[in-house]
Please model this.
Amino acid sequence: MSAPTLQVRGLHKSFGGVTAVHDVSFEAYLGQVVAIIGPNGAGKTTLFNMISGVFPPDDGEIWLNGHRLDRLPQHTIATLGVARTFQNMQLFSNMTVLENVMMGRYRHEQTSFIEAALGLTNREESQTQAVAMQHLERVSLAKKADLPASSLPLGEQRLLELARALAVEPRLLLLDEPTAGLNAVDAVRLAATIGRIQANNVTVLLVEHDMSMVMSVADWVVVLNYGEKLAEGRPEKIQTDPHVIEAYLGQENGQGNANGSWY
Amino acid sequence: MTDFRYRLPDRYWALGLLVLLLVLLPVFGCSPYLLTIMIFIGLYTIITIGLCLLMGYAGQISLGQAAFYGLGAYTSAIVTTKYSFSSWLGLPLSMALTGGVAFVIARPIFRLKGNYLAMATLGLGYIFYIMFSQVADLTGGPSGLTGVPYLSIAGWAFDRDIEYYYLVWAIAAMVLLASLHIINSRVGRALRAIHASEVAARSMGVDIDRLKAQIFVISAMYAGLAGSLYAHYVTFVSPSPFGFHFSVMLVVMAAVGGLATVWGAPFGVAVVVLLTEALRAVAPRFTGHGSAEYEIIAFGILLMLVMIYIPQGVVQGLSGIYLRRLKRRPIAARMDSRNLVMLPVLRRWFKLRG
Model:
């Protein structure tokens, strides 16, 4: 197999004495969807925040296609091709739907401060608009392009955040609980969109509680528990791993079922 | 589908209207006194636009903007009187120096936030103010520098008020246009993004610290430009106009006009300057002496009223009240031709554009 797109080695982070992530290592290859699962507080979002540069790890290394990411500022990591969505959505509520996706194009735009001041932006602006529009069409939101982003229902806000992250044209895409709070119809719509991402040679890291979705889209599953890696493997293998069942499903029913509706 | 064909944006029409009004003002008769006031409104507008960008868009406060205004004025005065440079060279030199100073201090000063940043910029203002009066070899000390030449560009001397009025407002219009361009570009979009979510803006690749520094530099350059124009207009500089008082006045002007739009700047400045002049005319009748100590009270009250009743500033606030009134009236009344013209225009400029 070729070299991994993302390599995480011995990552460690603690917040004032509380260890959030301890010695976590894993790899993700080109075009893979790697799901990170684990109970609440297992350190999934902390892991995402370190990979995307919101804060640096205390120890360990993160490599993306030969670039070392840890210690780099967040915006530089973004320009190297890492995009993400947020568990508690972070849409630009003061912008339209289209403008949100246009922000995703930021790293592809060239206009400097001085060019902007001189008004030499029309060409690039219309290009950016057109590309952003294509990304909106892919998630069926093109008709709502000029509405304020905050006016969309929750399901479409999640889709918009995904479209914005895809507009970045990332090499690595981090999705933090993309279906949280969604009804079944919206969740399926979102899962279908994520399924299509794979075709574009994007490596996806997915934090998700909806096990049926994890099982249907993930190529590889990493299980975290209390900040440590408990197991990793192919979804069907993880599903039947006794340690995982014990830790993740706890006492509730003690056994997973093959359909993956685990909670 | 959104139409991507190029359409002349509303901001050009608005700017055209403003320029037309300003061009026509002297034609319809304008006393020398009013002309002088209009020149000062133009100068302060240039600074206030920068402050709107800095406070309204980049979300950073500066209580030391008068320092850059003074630095621009002194640069022009010093290079023309002490080193006999041509007067027009003062403009680019002032902008370069103020921009350079702002660039050097931007990084350390923007490590601070909120009240601490306000204190630091206030300190900055004081440092420059004291330098203006203490580095006497260069600045002439408290008595200042006299004999600053009139501005002369390509052999044309701007030594009459009417000429200077057109020059200052032409430059103010260019500054406004450049600022509107910035706001409506990827840079402006990034600035708005920072307001909504810093972490999301960073995750799109926005270098927030750099952007804030760039806005700080450009706001300083605007102030330096205005300072240089000031020096060549009054042909005399001394430290007193560049103190803390004026920094605060600039913030008041920006807040009264409205921080969320650079369109507020000329109106905010006009309100404050005209109020100052009105006080100067009226106050002596009641007090028997000058109005200086009452000015600050009047501006305190003005600022409080604006913050309580129209926190978006006079431009957005008043147009918003107008729009609400209009909506409450029956349809037939709304069909008034004047409203038909104004309604969509107002709505587009002030409500959507933000």
Q: What stands out?
A: Chain A is about 35% helix and 20% strand. Residues 7 and 27 of chain A are 5 Å apart (CA to CA). The mean pLDDT of chain A is 86.
